[in-house]
Design a protein that fits this description.
Length: 131
């Protein structure tokens, strides 16, 4: 299945072998524990509405072209924009983390990279509620 991100006008195809590295590192349940004056524990729990992190990484294997990276940079440089992420058939409304929501490393250093030059990436996104 494919991975795409869109702003509603432009759709960027991402490598389908990016890894969602924090998929199971988040819990929808938030818990807070306090102690009463008698020493008894008071536990409050609630369900988070949104905010799940979605960090996609190449991990050395999934490469993207410089032209795709530049399109992602344009998305990243758009403040307050909510994007639609299609991640292997599941749809998420997301925004980029700030300040480090987009990271890239050249696969092979090149003095004058062309649009087909390859990079590995890290995308740090989080799920948001849509109106």
């Amino acid at each position: 299945m494919a991975i795409t991100i869109t702003d509603g006008t432009t759709t960027i195809d991402l490598p389908n072998d990016l890894q969602w590295v924090d998929e199971f590192a988040w819990s929808a349940v938030e818990q807070q524990k306090d102690y009463s004056l008698t020493g008894a524990v008071i536990v409050q729990q609630g369900v988070k509405q949104k905010g799940r992190p979605i960090t996609l990484q190449s991990n050395g294997g999934a490469w993207i072209k410089r032209s795709t990276l530049k399109a992602l940079q344009a998305f990243y440089d758009t403040p307050d924009q909510v994007f639609e992420l299609d991640l292997w058939g599941e749809i998420y409304a997301v925004q980029f983390e700030r300040p480090d929501g987009l990271g890239a490393d050249e696969v092979l250093r090149q003095a004058d990279p062309d649009p087909d030059h390859y990079y590995t990436i890290t995308l740090k996104l989080f799920e948001v509620a849509t109106p």
